Amino acid sequence: MVKKIYFQSIFFSFFFIKEALAAESGGMPQLNPEFWVSQIFWLILTFGIMYLVLSKLILPKISNNLESRKSQILENIEAAEKQREDSDAKLKEYDEIISKSKLEANSIFNQAREKALKDIGAKREVLDKQIDNEIAEAEKEIDALRKNAPDKINKIAIETSSELLQKLIGAEVNNSSISAIVDDLSKRNGDKYYGN
Amino acid sequence: MAANPMSQFDVYRIGPEIKVGAFDISFTNASLFMILSTVSILLIFNLGSKKNSILPNKIQLLAELSYTFVSKMISDTAGSKAKPYFAFIFSLFMFVLFCNMFGMIPYTFTVTSHIIVTFVLAAFIFIGVTVIGFIKHGFGYLKLFVPSGVPAVLLPLIVVIEIISYLSRPISLSVRLFANMMAGHTMMKVFGGFVISLGIVGGWLPLSFSVALTGLEILVAFLQAYVFAILTCIYLNDALNLHH
Asked: N or C: which end of chain B has fewer CB within 10 A?
């Protein structure tokens, strides 16, 4: 019911409005040339002034602002890039230093080891030489002793035999004849007693 | 008086009558709103360009966004050759936009709802573009009326059509803006009148229409300024880069 009244009232009011509008309509004010010249004049004046101020003063400033901001941002990006590169280079340098020092440490260790080995070798050589010398000397002494041994033995043999003979026989025996016999014997049996 | 939807377009004198020779250049409400629009444009863009901070404040952002918006519009439609005309198209767009927007405030006057204003703008653009075309291309600019790839038989007809369409540019440009503004404002006034005459019972329906129409009209106000500017760019493009 309320709805019906609502729509009816809308419907009827259209008639009234139409009548009210029809009574007052007097054409378009736009087509009345009374103020055309005034409008053209003020349009040219205001638009012209606005155009001049905008184009000469304001727009260059805005474009300047935009340009400077753009260039500043680009500069900042460049600076950041440069710093990044710098830090990369520093990192590389640091790595290099570390690897270099590692190599150095290695080489120092190797050198030390070599030196120690050389020292040991040198000392051993010296000792070897000393030992060899001593051995050679001892051998020489032994050789000398061995060489002298038959003579001494012969001499002892001769003296002993001569004394033996004197005791046994009681007569002087010529030493030279005994020595000849001993020499002969030792020549025959020397190899048996002394090896070589 | 107030019920007449056309009475909002009345031009009336403010202050004394000023006459220069036979011409009446009195200060009217139309003049008032032209001055208001231009002064607010200059104020906003002056404030928006004063400081140059890396992080723009709101008004600077507004100015710079409008600048890049218009400059992109021009470079997209008319190419880089249209750069010298940037200031003019920017002023044109802003002027039409602000006049349209001021008209959306109740009890104000819409400058662009008058055919004489839009026609003067359109005629200036038409004459300017034609002069630029003839300066850039000499009589070669007449090739605009002779599209390539048209059969010889059809050529006379096409040329006539092209000339008519070229000559009707200022009319279509001015009437489009004027008619849009006038129709929208008239419609809003009519619906506003319905709200009053239907009263508390039936007035809600036209009131809701009125609200919706206000949104639509703000959109149209922006759109028509944009269309006006972009059509100017397209005409300029024809004059600068002869394509046919």
From this structure: N
